[in-house]
Predict the structure.
Amino acid sequence: MTGMTEAEFQHQLAQERQARRQAEQSAAEKSREIHQLTQQLAEAREQALEASRATSTFLANMSHELRTPLNAIIGYSDILEEEAQQLDRDDFIFDLHLIKSAGKHLQAVISDILALTKIESGQMDLDLDTFDLVKLVQEVMTTVQLMVNQNGNTLEVNCDDTIGVMQADMSKVQQILFNLLGNAAKFTQQGHITLTVERRPLVMPALYPPQADPPPEEIVLRVTDTGIGITPDQAQYLFKAFTQADGSTTRRYGGAGLGLTICQHFCRMMGGHLTVESVLGQGSIFTVYLPAQVTGQATLAN
């Protein structure tokens, strides 16, 4: 090269080779570090999954263990309440009713925990069947009417008698409606609750899993209330397990904060979705979108 002696050229070439070797060594070290880090992350993930599975198994076992004595408590309180009525012991009836109510409340919480642990451990399956929507809605209304009346609310149902049948997991659709209407009844006082059920052609394909074939028809279940409502910031925690809008809500209204989480999981299992719109102090609208014909179980990742 011009202006460079052979010795200088060889020296520069040796420096470049050394720099390249150092760069290659540094890259190899970084590659080893990344590989080690990837292995550590994989091991940590597996440990976390194993811990989650162990927790789910423990909770499921404990739920079963708690259910047996609870059923006995509820059953015996029923028997004692009937006997107290026959003996005209009104002073016992109220206390026995409280025992039975508390037992049923705890039983419902345990059932929710058991359902959630089954979902998270992948043990929850769909039991698909074809059923009449009008009949299902009537059965749910009969169950929740007392809850609605307790806070002085009124319940309106909009469901066309010709809406027809649906193919899905009937018990899960019932549970979704019961949880949503139960929440509306709990968080609304002297207000109005509306359940609207409709069958319609698919309107919003984006709500369904992208890798699934969009259903030709969907069933929309919409629960509207004039209750306490929530803020947009609080809404992001609604579907998180064991969480309510804020601590004061839990203290005032009770509950384990599992109902909406389970509803969301059930909707996703059936290839659907659950949305919420709410204004603080004005009320909330929960809308369930489900295929009119559920053909298989969707993955929760959807």
